[in-house]
Amino acid sequence: MIKRPESGITLSPGVRAFRAGVSAAALAIGVMAGPAFAQTAPPAESIADGQEIAPEQIQDDSDIIVTGTLLRGVAPVGTNVVGVTREDILKSGAASANDLLADVPQVGNFGTVPVGTGSFALPIVRPNIRNLAAAGGSSTLVLLNGHRMVGAGVLQTTVDPSILPPEVIDRVEIVPDGGSAIYGSDAIGGVINFITRSRFNGLAANARYGLADNYQTIDGSLTAGKDWGSGSLLVTYAYAWHDNIQNRDRDYTNADHSGRGGQDFRSQVCSPGNVIDNPLNPLTGVPILFPLPGNIPYAMPGLVRGAVNKCDTNANSDFYPREERHTVFASLTQHLSDHVEFSATAYWSRRDTTTLTQQPGITGLIWGRTLLGQLGPINPYFQAVGTPPFQSFVQSVSISFDDVFGPTVTSKSRFDSYGVTPSFKFDLGHNWQLRTEANFGRSDNLVLDNTINTTAATNALAGTTLATALNPYDLSATNPAVLAAIRDFQNYGHAVQELAEARFVLDGSLARLPGGDIRLAIGGEYHYENLQSQISQSPRGDLSNSIRSFSSRNVKSAFAELLIPIFGADNAVPGLRQLNLSGSIRHDDYSDQGGSTNPKVGVTWKPVDQLTIRGNYGTSFHAPSLADTTSTSDSRAQILLFSPFRAGGSPTSDLARPTIILAGGNPALKPETANTWSAGFDWKPTIAPGLVVSATYYNVNFKDAIQVPPLTSPILYSNPGYSSFYILNPTLQQSLAAVGNLPLNGAPSIQSLYALGAPYVLIDARRNNIGAIKVSGIDFNVNYLRPTGFGSVNLGVSGTYTLSRKNQAVKGDPFSDELKNGTGRLALVANAGGTISDFTAQAKLNYRQGYPILGLVNQSRIGSFTTVDLFFSYALPDKGALKGTMLTLNVDNVFDRDPPFSDTLAGYANGSTLGRLVSIGLRKKF
Predict the structure, then answer these.
(1) N or C: which end of the chain has fewer CB within 10 A?
(2) How many CA atoms lie within 13 A of 672 on its CB side?
(3) Domains of the chain with CATH codes
(4) Beta carbons within 8 Å of 359's beta carbon, 6+ residues apart
(5) Count of Cβ atoms closer than 10 Å to residue 814 Cβ
(6) Prior bond of 651 cis (ω within 30°)
(7) Tens digit of pLDDT for each residue in 744-789?
(8) What is the mean pLDDT of the chain?
(9) The predicted structure's pLDDT at residue 388
(10) How many CA atoms lie within 13 A of 249 on its CB side?
């Protein structure tokens, strides 16, 4: 159980009032939604118990709004929509919405096990169409039933799709095109819209158990629904839990790759540790106590000369952390009259994550007493090595705290979120409809990242008494109080995010053309969000020196969409069976970013009934997230007492001068922008009923990408494009002006740095608009579904092929070809299956193509990754106690394929897997 410390983060007054109004309205309608309303509603078809209500039973096609358009009853003109159906969801065996998206080739985490980090920097897995960068936010917009969801995380404002269990999802619609003309910010790479189930009559239960090597998983759900003709109520509770997998449980994560022709990445920060006697001075490259012999290794215990202990610091860390999720989802609909319908959805989710990481260690200097007197702080535990007079009395020790603290440290995270969205539909007559919607969401995010206090450990190495010093040769002999001070440390992150929206859309027919009705939709939206965060690096439970921040913004938006059918069923001619033109535009006025106007145009042309040709062009943008602005809690000035690198022409001694680093958010950030266009076709040949062939060319020109300058690389000084991000030999006035009111870490004041001489460099390592990406490719889909005398047969292949992907690291740089380094061209899914009476079987192949890699010593290419998944289901005889019962079996990664080898510390790349995972399930409708 995670105890949430008091942090002082509360709801803002305006949001409290908004939430109270939304909740009261939803509750009032919920209480009233019964027989009284049923009397005034139109008659409805009777639904049997345990029956799912299909969308066509809920409303006719003229009422459905497809992702990518504001207009009812039409597909988005010129746009490719990738769909994941309810049947796909059931066959996938996915335990979360993130798992579902990992099956979609256009999404960046395709072919991987989606997992966040245990730190508060990136605990949320964010879907990313086309793999476009977006710092703390996202370049892919994630929606729930067409509206936004509240963000999650501490230094992120990304939507967490894992709050949605597959059991509540009816389908997923993915538009891999720019969508800011319809939806506003974030929709650069595209839009992912989760559409939930809305009507069900009866009771349904689902349970599943999965097993892999050193791993198990459990998930289940219970759904209750009631349909009373004029309305319905559906409530689902879902639970999911899975075990952790440590790196030592998978051979391919071993840090020593020498057996595979690679490098040995094992560490020397081990238990037992290592000693380097008279180590090299990093400034001069010669031993510290020159001319004495130096840089001689000794292994503990026993200080064996010439020996070195090595250990795999990956081994005890989690490859996949333990997780537990609870979700409650509810959907209510009610016809209030022949022309008015009320609906509301609400959800609550809690996700607890426990992450094991390798016990940390330290490397530092320890001094003994020399014949020349005291050259450094003398540690009373110092053990000289060698034979006099060749004993140096200074050592570099590398030790892990495994022996005294255990092999791992445990970090815990809790992510709570909820949302409620009431809406009304008013049929105004003459095919006009007004839709109004309110939307509120709140997330509470806590990350407790346990680690060691490296400052305390370094100070203890320099301790001069038995009461204050660390004994690196035998940690257990150290004063327990010293060990406690080292162990009692935590990176604490807590954030509350809130979202409040009000929106209306009016759409209908303007006039009648021979090709059909001219359709118009206009609307407006008010959006408010805030981020309240608190971070601390301190002893556990001590938040006295924590950094708190609050940031908020509001956005006022107006938008419109126009559809003009030039040719249609009533005036079709050969070569012009259908021709639709559309245009949409949206203006967003940000309280902190100014305005952004984004248009989009589209065309759909049917030269013959079986062939549709489409295309579109638009602009999109992503406003810097509140996690990227200067008010974020990670904004700071960090002082290093040395310089990691030096500019050309600087003397070596400059490496020993301090460095001032500005880190975190940046008030000067501007929106990321993109021009996007696509063209493609959909072919349904009459000679092959059930066959659909689609292909789409896409092109994205992504500019002003928010990234961090390469602080840890000498390229910072060698590339002229980065010259504006640092000042060599800054004056006191320049440093004071740059630091301003930022929190200062590593020094008591800026002035104190100048007391002993000026710092070497001032680096602006904050998030900045510095990058650009140009990407183009082809999305494709071939699907064949054929009914047979015994059931049906289905075959399909879908994927994406990258034609070009070029990256500009900083403005002014030439674009580099990422297809020559680190990016594969092809990702696809192929499936084959069928049904025989009540039995269903399907095989699915997942493929990620390999790619060239630069910069690795013994490797020039990462291999491809192919896995095969199987699904089986059997509906038991529909009688007696077995009525409505289905058994399922999923086998993921049937051949237990490991991901491709990478000669890096991780050991693998281009995909990830849990191994062969066998899951058995039971579904029951009552």
Answers:
(1) N
(2) 33
(3) 13-247+320-357+412-451+491-630+671-706+770-925 (2.40.170.20)
(4) 271, 316, 400, 401, 402, 405, 406, 407, 408, 409, 452
(5) 7
(6) no
(7) 988 899 999 898 788 999 999 999 999 999 999 999 999 999 999 8
(8) 90
(9) 76
(10) 16
